[in-house]
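[INFO] parsing input record for UDP-N-acetylenolpyruvoylglucosamine reductase
[DEBUG] input buffer:
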Amino acid sequence: MMNIDELKIELKSFFGEGEIKFDEPMRNHTSFKVGGPCDIMIIPNSKEKLIKALELIKKYNIPYFIMGKGSNLIVKDGGFRGVILKLTGLDYIIVKDNNIIAGGGASLSNTAREALLNSLKGMEFASGIPGTVGGAVAMNAGAYGGEIKDIIEWAECVNDNLELIKLTKEDLNLSYRHSRVQEENLVVVEACFNLDKGNYDEIKSNMEELNRRRIEKQPLNYPSAGSTFKRPTGYFAGKLIEDSGLKGYRYGGAMVSEKHAGFVINYENATAKDVLEVIKHVQDVVYEKFGVKLETEVKIIGED
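[DEBUG] output buffer:
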């Protein structure tokens, strides 16, 4: 970390004012609305600038983390020492026949909306998922019976050697909340989804029905990161938590949602510590009662 001041100087000469921030509070960039400051945040608006940022980060040997909209991320209260690369500058969406090509920082729900506007079906499940295309590919995001692996054609990524590589659906090794992107620390800069021609009204009706179910079952009026825990094999996390009597369990400003036990929410000005204490308590009680280890779906970074 000794070279971070030198990195700042070099970054200033390459990136514009809107693309770089220093000592940036991460609570402003996560859907949980918690987290201390990162030393540097870079929001590159092109693949070339992303690669340049990674080149400089590696040159000075500074720790870094790649994020999208922060919808699946908890940053601890002490913040993140190093660089946060936020990809929301890569937010284009292009429709070509039955394919949609989107930047890694494009909103997944906006991409699904674009599919609707072009009467392309198959992406309805993604219309209420709050993250980016890159994050969705990295974790094979899914909901209501659909997953990214059902519709993806290819993804373009930056590898550890700072080369752009194009990976097919098979190359990506997509499985439940997992992909080769995670295995090899790749950065998704673009993805192509192959959809089918459909009927606009039917696609719209399907999306509206899925969103109605989300609103009915999920605590969307509170900051959270969606489903906090991965689905354990043979179980549902929410049911295990509810059967453990933990609905409404609260620590500080964080709480297990009374509407859906699979969601930990920022109920009242929670700190990251509050959220993490609730998560740990849930994990401990569920393991004690059912012998099941709940793994977090949400990513946790930073220092206390």
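[INFO] The chain has three domains: 4-89, 93-216, 220-301.
[INFO] shutting down worker
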